[in-house]
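Re: the request from the purification team.
They wanted to know what the chain is likely to look like in 3D before they choose a buffer screen. I agreed to run a prediction and write the result into the notebook, where they can find it.
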Amino acid sequence: RYQLVEQRLLSLIESGTLTPGGKAPSLRETARHVGVSLSSVSQAYAILEQRGILEARPRSGYFIRRTPVQL
């Protein structure tokens, strides 16, 4: 199920809805919107962070990296 979240976020970035430096939707908001568990969203966000697409900021959430790797 985490793949659904991953695909959705990448789609939003590619379309320009989410822009570099901008805040990614919260984990809870994404879980509700996509209809998956919070742990699936956490897994997807962690993978996107490892790939250099998202950046976690303590107490602030996840942000789209200013210079994301090639999608």
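For the purification team: The CA atoms of residues 11 and 17 lie 9 Å apart.
Please add any questions underneath this entry.
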